Amino acid sequence: MSDEPLLAVDGIEKHFGGITAVDGVEFEIEEGTIVGLIGPNGAGKTTTFKMLGGFLPPDAGEIRYRGTDLQDIMQPSRAEKSYFTGSAALVAGLGGLALASQSTPSTAIQAGAAAVGAGAGLGAYRGQEILKTRHFGHKYSRPFQVSRAGMMRTFQITRELEGLTVFENLLLSPKNQPGENVLKTWMRFNSVTETEAANHERAEEVLDLLDLEHLRDEYAGNLSGGQRKLLELGRVLMADPDLILLDEPVAGVNPTLSKTLLARIRDLRDQGYTFCIVEHDMDVIMNLSERIIVMHQGQKLMEGTPEEVQGNQRVIDAYLGG
Amino acid sequence: MALSGPAAFLVSMLTLGGIYAILAIGLNIQWGQTGLFNISVAAFWGIGAYTAALVSKVGGETAFSWGLPFLWVDVVGFPIPIPVAVILAAIVSGVVAVLIGIPTLRLRTDYLAIASLGLAETIRLIFLNEGWLTGGGTGSTVSNPLVDLQYTNLTLLVITLVVLGIVYWLAETGVQSPWGRALEAIRDDEEVAQALGKNTFSLKMQAFVIGSMIMGVAGALTALRLNYITPFEFIPEFTFYVWIAVIVGGSGSNRGAIIGAGFLMVLLEGPRFLSDFLPGLSGSVAADLRFLLIGLVLMLVVTYRPQGFLGDKQLMTEDNT
Amino acid sequence: MALELQLVVNGIVFGSIILLASIGLSLLYGIGDFANFAHGEFLTLGAFITFAGYVTFGLPIYVAGLMAFLFVGALGVLIDRILMTRHRDSTPIILLILTIGLALFLRAVIRLQWGDNQRTLGMPLERGTELLQGSVGWIDYGIRITSTDIAIVFLALVLATGTHLFLTRTRMGIAMRAMSDNKSLAKVAGIDTDTVMTVTWALSGALAGTGGMLLAMQTGVLFPRMGFNIVLVVFAAVILGGIGSPYGAMIGAYIIGIAQEVSVMIPGISAEYRYAFAFLIMIAVLLYKPQGLAGGRW
Amino acid sequence: MMTDNDPNADDSSMNRRPILKTVAAGGATAVLAGCIGGGDGGDGGNGDGNDGSSDGDDGSSDSGGGGATYDVGLVNPYSGDLAPFADRNDRGSDLALSEINNESVAGGKINKITADSETTSNAGVSASQKLVNQEGVDVLTGPCSSGVAVSIAESVTIPNEITHIMINSTAPGITDLEDNGYVLRSCPSDAFQGQALAQVVSDNDISSVSLIVVNNDYGQGLADAFQKRYKELGNTVETTIPAEQGRSSYSAQLNEADNPNSEGIVFIVYPQSFQTMIREAYQMGIQENYEIFGAESMVSDEVEQNVDPVAINGMKGTNPSPPIESEVYQTFAEEFQNEYDRQPTVWAAYAYDAYMMLGLAIHSAGEYSSDAVANAIYEISRPEGTEVSSIAEGKSELDAGNAINYQGASGNVNLDENGDPSGSYQHWEVIDGTFEMQGFVDTGQ
């Protein structure tokens, strides 16, 4: 690992129809810091966030996490590629076989047709893949790989998994759960129960940390807005990522709870986690962040320490004018 | 050679009910657990049935001529007809499910519904028109090894219940596991599941394939029950029947799926006794009234108890999209 | 030998039949946010009411068609008032199951009323007029068109245009579009969403009723499953066009109609598979344009 | 207009014969049988029908008891694709039952219990399970489509050793069922008709045809038999085009059949699809270029009444022929006309014959049980013996100790060792929009 920052954003753009939502934004996030992302409504913060998380591919520019382009992180694995290719070949091969068997009883010709079909299917699939990625600028959007790589986001409007209890929500997050392979579950692998027990333990700790023990078995759908925010943070903690993208972590949270939340975030920073936070509450963001990036109309207006941002006339104009 | 009298009727109904229960559990994994709006149940049911019919023909000759007890588990490594048929039915259904899943599982819920319905119809057309493989409209005989047994219908019931037990265990274990949790996450909000690092496409595919394999197993049992299958068994209406079982039983609950299948059997077969109470009712009017009743009950159930008997109220009454 | 142009014409005629059903289905899908599986039964009912008017009462065919338009429209209102008002907040899946129940119910009612045997409109037979006979190179062009074909296409287009005007020129139509775009916003803006839903049901039913008449005119035979048998194709057209977009549905209907007919030209594929063809096209389009052709716009 | 004779046109027939209102509406089968037979609760008997006859020794050998009821099951497609056949089966069988129960056979009456097959095997098997095991019938009749019939035979009737008389299942494959003599039918196998049809087409000097075939057991079975014979006669089949029932358009199939190499088009489809097809064919001008032929399935009132004569005039084909000139058929047709105010179809005749044979077999055996019926039914239909065609005649001959040979409305119904009657076929031509029989087909074998 060289001196490449944890996250480097380089001139990303996003257009929706004729509207330019994000226009050449660039910034960097160093490990172990809290960076704030602010701006008036419609400044493109959320779109930027989506692109960082891999949910939206940028139209131009590059996002590098630990020096690797997000597009490379989100590449389908070799296994997945061969699985798709194989399926295309299988379908076309069967098609060839069916066509041949209609017209001739000769096994050799049928086998030949099947082979030709399979080849054609394989070729057609590879061809359209190449066409798609090389010539039509197809971008991958497979955010789970970003998440697995260690960069995890929360949502502006908390999206709890309402049919799951608080405890289950927490248990869901950890990476590399052997129990998520259903065959291992059915075969009763030891690793499944062991990991599950470890996760249970950790989930209890997180519940404790966030003061949510009393809601352990409550359906997440029944939580208040603030409790959901806490749960969302808890879920991220369970996954143990390196970089946490928080989208309005204290919006709609009562002041007491909000204070707890912010204290937790600071603690976590001290433990080595890195945060990037979008927040409307200026007090919160000024108190929390070491660096602040201000966006306006899809562009980066400025970047600096809270003090610098607070005194900046352009920022004030943007907020008042926007 | 077989059980007879009312007991036999009951056995037959229980067998059919068991088959519907297996189908319902398969669908419950897809819909109740993962939120996949699959309307191609009948297709996988049919694939299972036809596979069983085809392989039973292949294996029939040799295994029969040995005069072995047909449920005998292999000793010298020679497979016996029934398990082979059932397992192969599951495998073939699974392979087809993978192929269908690749294009359709990326689609939005309701698009998936119609796409799967269309593919089901395509598969039925293949059953109907590829005579060299399926016997076409004439149908296909099933070399049922059970037919020569002392208590054919009872044996089939036992097999069905054993399969149902296995399927139920697999489904329940799956649901309770982290795998089931991840599927539920996808059902509730696929984007969140992605943000949490779950490969949602792969998980959806797993649910789709496993559910479809279970439906294929039900198909194999159906082949054994009917001994002769035609493409007309696998029309879209039967998919709706299975949906009724799942919804009425309660989405997301495997026990509910079984209860729903029981309810479905009462709904489908109960009105047969209607003419006993209403003499003078002609056969065709009775048949029409039966469907009238089925439609009515369905509307009433979803109006007054949308979560079904054992369902998760959360899932059925709140909009999660 | 099959004349290529003829296939296209056949496709346009078939597309026109499913056109009306597609528009209605798409409106319900967009505004009510659910798939109406009873739509096929609306078609059947429209056909049978046309039958009742034309054959049983001896009215002129278009008067009978008007009856179908009005009656099935009224049925739509009835269904909405009695059944659907209780389900304004239900999930799409509940509504789907509900409409499956409704479909079974309606089909049983049709059976009880008209029986299982096929009925015939008994429209006079007509040999198609030959137009444009000739050939260029290998391509034979030459088409036969009957006045029924022309009437079907004309009527479908007139109603489609009428719907277009309704949606763009009237308050109600604009309210419907607003509601399709954003339900909560429409509610906030003071639109009576309940009434809008009822009108949508009425319009959707009326269009399907007329579609049923066209179907009966084309097929010549009526039977209780006739609507259900084509409803899958209608769904394909709606999805292809983009759910909730009536204009997309119009395009979808013609694409599906033509593609089905032209698929006969592919060698080695049995004519029976043309029904499958509609779905294959639909899935292929969705893979590259997941929102359908209209892309969620009106 | 056409509604008058339309099979379900309740309204028109109701006015004229209020007494038969329920019958015309397809109603009251059980009640009707019960009423005519003396009204001793034929329908209420369902409940105790279980103990009455399920074990075979209660209601049987003791033929003296005037109140004995013999439960017979009819699995009938009241819903589903073949629903139009259900009423035909009911009418034919009810007509036979009224005669049987007037006379009483072996001192008892036959009680018909129906169940809906929905035209699918799953439902059909359930229906027959109910009839056989719940209601305890010893003889099962129906269902309609051959696929369902085979499912029921394999899964219910053969294992339960129930005599199974199929009424409309004409698939050639049924002949080869390993049924231990329990499965028989009152309609001839399509293997015979396929040959006859091939002969007719060939005799018209048409040496290459396209086939449009409904893709179910009936269509495929018949098409296969046709093709085999037609080729033997030195002709060629250009294409066989499957067509599913219930489609709204068959232009694709017709376009495929529109093949410069063929001289004729043979339709093996049901009236419903045929009406759509022939309409489209006419619009396309197919009749101008091809000779058209059809199987028996389209010989029906619906086609005669609903299809414009110009579209079908000159069309030729075959029909399993009830001997229309025969006295038996004439009597049957007349009774049928009186009862239902319509002309019978050949299917009604098959149903009628099935029940007549059943009645005679019961009387001949002197008891009602599956085995007794299965044995006796072959005996009373064989060519040896006095020819009889009504229950009264049959009873007096049998009581006198003579062997009888039942002559049915649908033909001589001589069951061969496989339980199949041999078929005799007439060829027809459409003249002025009606099917005119042109005499019997000599298949030259």
From TrEMBL, chain B:
Keywords on record: Cell membrane, Membrane, Transmembrane, Transmembrane helix
One MF annotation (Gene Ontology) recorded for this entry: branched-chain amino acid transmembrane transporter activity
Transmembrane segments: 6-29, 36-56, 76-99, 111-129, 149-171, 207-228, 240-268, 289-306
Record flagged with keyword Cell membrane: yes
Membrane disposition: Multi-pass membrane protein
InterPro entries noted in UniProt: ABC_transp_permease, LivM-like
A GO CC annotation given for this chain: plasma membrane
Subcellular location: Cell membrane
Annotated coiled-coil segments of the chain: none
Protein name, UniProt field: Branched-chain amino acid ABC transporter permease
Lineage: Archaea, Methanobacteriati, Methanobacteriota, Stenosarchaea group, Halobacteria
UniProtKB/TrEMBL annotation, chain C:
Subcellular locations according to the entry: Cell membrane
Family membership: Belongs to the binding-protein-dependent transport system permease family. LivHM subfamily.
InterPro entries according to UniProt: ABC_transp_permease, BCAA_transport_permease
Single Gene Ontology MF annotation: transmembrane transporter activity
Sequence intervals crossing the membrane: 7-31, 51-79, 91-110, 150-167, 228-259, 271-288
Domain of life: Archaea
Membrane topology: Multi-pass membrane protein
Keyword list, A-Z: Amino-acid transport, Cell membrane, Membrane, Transmembrane, Transmembrane helix, Transport
UniProt KW Lipid biosynthesis keyword: no
Gene Ontology BP term (one): amino acid transport
GO-annotated cellular components: plasma membrane
UniProt name for this protein: Branched-chain amino acid ABC transporter permease
Source organism per UniProt: Halorubrum persicum
Automatic annotation (TrEMBL), chain D:
InterPro entries for the chain: ANF_lig-bd_rcpt, BCAA_transport, Peripla_BP_I
CDD domains: PBP1_ABC_ligand_binding-like (cd06346)
Composition bias, Gly residues: 35-50
Positions of the UniProt region annotated as Disordered: 1-20, 35-71
GO cellular component, one term: membrane
Keyword Transport: no
Keyword Ribonucleoprotein: no
Primary location class: membrane
A Pfam family assignment: ANF_receptor
UniProt entry keywords in alphabetical sequence: Membrane, Transmembrane, Transmembrane helix
Domain Receptor ligand binding region span(s) in chain numbering: 94-431
Protein's cellular compartments: Membrane
Domain of life, source organism: Archaea
Protein name as it appears in the record: Receptor ligand binding region domain-containing protein
